[in-house]
Amino acid sequence: MNASSNGGNYEVNSLEKLKSEISKLDEKTCDRSIDGILNNTNPEVLDEYNKYVDEQAGKMLQDKDVESVCYQNDGKTVYRVEIDPISSVELELKDVEEADGDGGASINSIKNGSSQWKKYGNRYFTAKYTRYIGTGYATLYTENHYNVSEKGLKERYATSWVQHSVALKASIGSIKDSIEDKTATKKGEDIHIKTRITVNISLHGIAQSTTITERTKVKIESIDKKNKRIKVKQSWEAL
Q1: I need a surface site. Which of 5, 18, 151, 171 has the fewest CB within 10 A?
Q2: Taking 80 as the threshold, does the pLDDT of residue 3 lie above it?
Q3: Nearest to 33, CA basis, from 210, 209, 203, 208
Q4: 149 has which bridge partners?
Q5: Do the Cβ atoms of 144 and 193 come closer than 8 Å?
Q6: DSSP states of 42-108
Q7: Does the CA dihedral 63-146-210-162 come out positive or negative?
Q8: Cα–Cα distance between 135 and 228 in angstroms, integer?
């Protein structure tokens, strides 16, 4: 979409113009602030820009060289991709064994597509997707809750929510979780949930929005009924 036909009094009325203005922010001669650029950009272009950032992040986080942007931070495995001087995205994945009467939940930070043995019981696979814009950020959490048993894997439900910084306000405009494959009973089969979320953003009073579509998948790699466990591969992908 090109918003030039609805330009009004805005100085920036196309995505290419906005990207050009943002690129100048890392030049010594730049005298325009992030707020200055955003305040002078057509709101339709801001929405287009947010879509562009999420699309680029999704591609980069699924690239064959994604391990080059993976790092360890306080025991956590984090993927971070830089889109331009004002926008970046971080992805952190967690595997959680739900708490029972014997104690608290067991939480492990994992790599995308990694495999682990899981004993029978309820678990959930969490994707923490953080968008940074200037000095603000919004974090989207999605949880894929499933069960491991002698019958295999079974999806239970999904839940999502958003957190944000003081500089950047965020709220969920709409959300749709779709269980596409509910059960997996043998090696090679998987269960997965597709989540589509529209997030409303306000950065220093400048309203924006973005829609993120993702899939969390749990695949059976091996079954060990004797020891009551299943080896699973958990993965995240942008759609």
Answers
A1: 5
A2: no
A3: 203
A4: 152
A5: yes
A6: -HHHHHHHHHHHHHHHHHHHTSTTGGGGEEEETTEEEEEEE-SSSEEEEEEEEEEEPPBTTB--EEE
A7: negative
A8: 47
- The structure tokens 């922010």 sit at 25
DSSP 8-state assignment for residue 39: H
Q: How far is the C-alpha of 139 from the C-alpha of 163, rounded, in Å?
A: 5
Which residues contact residue 123 at a Cβ distance below 8 angstroms, ignoring those fewer than 6 apart?
95, 96, 97, 98, 145, 146, 147, 148
Distance CA 56, CA 63 (A): 11
d(CA 72, CA 198): 29
By CB atoms closer than 10 A (0-12, 13-18, 19+), residue 177 is: middle
Q: What share of the chain is helix, strand, coil (3-state, %, to 5)?
A: 20, 55, 25
Q: What percent of the chain has pLDDT over 70?
A: 91
Task: Copy the structure tokens of residue 68.
Answer: 């080059």
